[in-house]
Write a structure and sequence with these properties.
The structure holds two protein chains of two kinds. Chain A is mainly alpha-helical. Chain A has twelve helices and eight strands. The radius of gyration of chain A is 37 Å and the shape is elongated. The chains are: A mainly alpha, B alpha+beta.
Chain lengths: ~300, ~475
């Protein structure tokens, strides 16, 4: 380099001058800084050699690197799989037990039922919540409740954990004929009035017109066939006289009436979407919403 | 600086006094190693005594209590053991009060008596003191050390330096180990260490501690106080006119002058300061206290010892350098301790923090209850027309063994039923157990959308051990 010097101090400069007298000294960077630079450069090389570093666009792969001493060649996928294994190991010991247990036995086991309450949440949200609502609060359409609330203690087909399992595994479909042709408006109105009061037997029509055949002499329904309890405070569709009139007139799942109420619980075994363990989990999960009924004879405390 | 152009300009009055400060600005930036002279005296003894408290750091972790380590900051299991006491993360709010308390003690002490912590208790001071003591034992007094540093490398220098650094490293390793064993079982750690069976984290902590100890106490020394430590700066600004600190009595000492042989001190035109530089020689941070209070002074009082011994020898009264406030030195009336409002405010805050900690420790409780009401749905209408609420209970059992609890409630709705109230719930020790509780009440008794309710859990074997939580019962809109 040619000898450029600062006129005043005599220090060597780069020779670039701005604003008449402003120049760059040719000082070395500090020693510590140079050491840092060298170490960083070496580190880059080491890192480059050890880790996957060059993506190969044509083959969709990468140079794998020589790997880390003791732990092999690192990839993000392997790390993710290892993390996943940690989770699976924690779940594994529970899942293994669930396989051979009946829903009632799972419910009786405090630890397992706590586990199911947590892992069942995802299953419920994915498979059930569309109709039954998040946390089983039910959903409504313009004709009333679309799918039953699962939090209460009123069950069309039974509320023991085994019955709930059965409802999930095999589906449920009740049937009520449309009565608009067999009953006149006055009769429908009288029946709806009595039912909405929670006292269906108040009108003699309840017996005369054959309602007792399905809903029982006391109007409390029969779980074996899924007929609703008309004497309690929980309504499957709507509890207003108008809503009840609609149900009587058009029935439920009556293929002969286009306006009939639809109430079909799909068969999840046939759908093939859920495994037996998953359905067991859901049965316990739903039971624990708060409305589950103890089986006879009563199982161990939950 | 004496022959600098600026000094000349100042002297002939061609620049203003604004620059005088800069001309006298002297900074110890560590170019020269400070080899302080060790002199006996009151403050030296005091400093040795206070620094000895750090011995507990080396031995305290070996204390056992009921077969376990007495004091253990078990970070792995998120527990803090202090003899019979176990503090879980839930009680960690007391830690913030403890930090507040310590900060306020630091503030209060500093505002009354300047940097007491720096001079007598700080680990940087203590370890540096230990390291320089070792240095003196091996390489000799300061004059010899300066000579040895300047001497060319020969067998003797290599031998002395090797021994010194070996002992320094040994102390550093011991420091690193002693630090770590507060966080895990001390004996187990030694066992693992001797078998070279530590985890990566344990090795990293040990090596970091060793290197920091060795470098900070062996090489950085007073530079840490000057440029690294934030506390030294904070403490400096907490001193005021009333704060007592090691100060040079300028009125008595100036004009300073060398004492000539045979010169009578009485009637001399000089002050009491004989410019012997003993106060500078003994200073571990290389400060000249005669320049007034300054950043580098850690207020350790060693210059007081040095000056007093000189005053004794020349037959002058002690206290040319002494603990005194600026008020006293400037001839202002000296205020009483209780006339120091700032210190009083600190004391009030520290008493409040102390009260909080005492309250916390006496109300630790063996059980802690948290109740989360279900948010979706807020309530459920049951077939008999009653309204049911669902609650998730989290009970933390801080005792050493599993126990069963019963749930009860106060307030809420008339004729409410806690479903399964007679059931015992297992609560495993050392962690939180969760279970669900349902409360059912007739709708006609529900007068408000939201009704307060208090839940209790109590140990079935010892009903006095209980915990409570206030929450609400949700009902339909009216």
């Amino acid at each position: 380099m040619s000898e450029n010097r600062n006129a005043d101090s005599g220090e060597t400069t780069t020779g670039h001058v701005w604003d008449d007298d402003l120049a760059d000294y040719t000082n070395q960077p500090p020693r510590w800084w140079m050491i840092g630079l060298a170490v960083s450069a070496i580190w880059v090389v080491v890192y480059f050699v050890m880790y996957p570093s060059i993506p190969i666009a044509t083959s969709g792969t990468f140079t794998p690197g020589i790997g880390l001493p003791g732990s092999g060649q690192w990839t993000a996928i392997k790390e993710m799989e290892a993390d996943q294994k940690d989770v699976d190991d924690v779940r594994g010991k529970f899942e293994k037990k669930l396989k051979d247990m009946a829903p009632a036995a799972i419910l009786a086991d405090k630890e397992l039922s706590e586990y199911v309450s947590r892992s069942g949440k995802v299953l419920f949200s994915d498979n059930c919540a569309a109709c039954h609502g998040q946390n089983g609060i039910g959903t409504t359409d313009k004709q009333g409740l679309f799918a039953p609330i699962l939090n209460d203690d009123d069950w069309l087909f039974g509320g023991t954990v085994d019955q709930i399992y059965e409802s999930i595994a095999n589906g449920r479909q009740g049937m009520m004929m449309a009565h608009k042709s067999s009953l006149n408006d006055e009769e429908i109105k009288a029946l709806a009035g009595a039912v909405s009061q929670g006292n269906p037997t108040a009108t003699p029509l309840f017996t005369e017109k054959g309602c007792v055949g399905c809903h029982g002499a006391d109007g409390k329904g029969m779980q074996a066939m899924g007929s609703a309890n008309l004497a309690d405070k929980v309504w499957r569709f709507a509890g207003t006289p108008e809503g009840i009139k609609y149900t009587i007139a058009h029935g439920v799942n009556d293929p002969g009436d286009k306006e009939t109420r639809v109430a079909i619980m799909p068969n999840f075994t046939a759908a093939g979407k859920l495994s037996a363990v998953e359905m067991k989990k859901l049965a316990v999960y739903v039971f624990r919403f708060g409305g589950g009924k103890a089986a006879d004879p009563a199982p161990a405390a939950q | 600086m004496n022959d600098s152009p600026l000094k000349k300009d100042l002297d002939d009055g061609s620049v203003t006094g604004l620059y005088r400060e800069h001309a006298e600005w002297h900074v110890n930036s560590g170019e020269k190693t400070i080899h302080a002279k060790r002199m006996p005296g009151f403050f030296r003894t005091l400093k040795t005594a206070t620094e000895s408290l750090w011995l507990f750091f080396f031995v305290g972790a070996y204390l056992r209590w009921n077969g376990k380590q007495a004091i253990l900051l078990d970070i792995n299991n998120r527990q803090f053991h202090f003899f019979n006491l176990t503090i879980l993360p839930q009680d960690v709010w007391m830690m913030s009060l403890l930090l507040l308390l310590l900060a306020m003690v630091l503030f209060a002490v500093t505002s009354v008596a300047s940097r007491v912590f720096c001079g007598y208790f700080c680990f940087q001071t203590a370890w540096t003191d230990l390291f320089t003591w070792i240095e003196e034992k091996i390489e000799g007094p300061p004059a010899k050390r300066h000579k040895l540093d300047a001497a060319p490398w020969n067998a003797k220098k290599i031998r002395l330096k090797t021994i010194k650094h070996a002992i320094w490293l040994l102390v550093s390793v011991l420091t690193g180990i002693s630090f770590t064993i507060w966080f895990e079982d001390a004996f187990q750690y030694w066992h693992n260490l001797l078998a070279f069976n530590l985890s990566l984290l344990e090795w990293a902590v040990l090596v970091t501690m060793v290197l920091f100890t060795y470098y900070f106490a062996g090489f950085m020394r007073e530079q840490v106080c000057m440029w690294v430590c934030p506390y030294s700066r904070i403490q400096g600004v907490m001193c005021d006119q009333q704060t007592i600190l090691p100060a040079y009595d300028e009125k008595r000492g100036e004009p300073r002058g060398k004492l000539r042989k045979g010169e009578a001190l009485a009637g001399s035109k000089h002050g009491d300061c004989i410019d012997c530089f003993q106060c500078v020689q003994v200073c571990p941070t290389g400060v000249d206290i005669r320049r007034g209070q300054q950043l580098g002074c850690i207020t350790c009082g060693l210059c007081l010892d040095a000056c007093d011994s000189v005053m004794d020898r020349i037959g002058r009264p002690r206290g040319l350098i002494r603990y005194a406030s600026l008020d006293e030195m400037e001839g202002h009336p000296v205020k009483k301790l209780y006339q120091h409002p700032r210190a009083l405010v600190y004391v009030i805050i520290l008493l409040l923090a102390l009260g909080g900690i005492v309250y916390g420790l006496t109300h630790l409780g063996a059980l802690t209850l948290r109740v989360a009401p279900e948010r979706q749905p807020l309530f459920v209408r049951m077939s008999d027309g009653s309204i049911q609420n669902k609650y998730t209970f989290r009970v933390l059992n801080k005792t050493g063994k599993d126990l069963h609890v019963m749930v009860s409630a106060e307030g809420g709705i008339k004729n409410q039923i806690i479903v399964g109230a007679g059931q015992k719930q297992l609560v495993t020790h050392g962690k939180a157990s969760t279970f669900t509780v349902f409360v059912k009440a007739p709708e006609t008794n529900i007068l408000k959308e939201v009704t307060p309710i208090e839940f209790y859990v109590s140990n079935t074997e010892d009903p006095t051990m209980r915990a409570e939580y206030h929450t609400v019962f949700n009902g339909p809109k009216h």
